[in-house]
Amino acid sequence: MTKFDSIKMLELVKVEDPDADGGLTLIFQENKILKIKIVDGKLVSEFV
Predict the structure, then answer these.
(1) HSE toward the beta carbon, residue 36, CA cutoff 13 A
(2) Cβ-based neighbours of 5, under 8 Å, separated by 6 or more
(3) pLDDT score recorded for residue 48
(4) 20 to 30 A from 31, CA-CA: which of 8, 9, 19, 40?
(5) Which residue, 9, 27, 6, is CA-closest to 17?
(6) Is the pLDDT of residue 1 over 70?
(7) CA distance 19 to 29
(8) 33 CB neighbour count, 10 Å cutoff
(9) Is the sign of the CA dihedral 9, 13, 15, 16 positive or negative?
(10) How far apart are CA 16 and CA 24, in angstroms?
(11) Which helix or strand (DSSP H or E) is residue 45 part of?
């Protein structure tokens, strides 16, 4: 789970559900953005 270390203990500021891509966008302090969506039946997450 080291992929998510950059947002550990940061405050969640805003949630966009659904976002422009039809997924879920979580915006944290320090402008850390995590996008979550389903691709080919699998949950995919990426930092922007």
Answers:
(1) 10
(2) none
(3) 85
(4) 40
(5) 27
(6) no
(7) 18
(8) 16
(9) negative
(10) 6
(11) strand 42-47
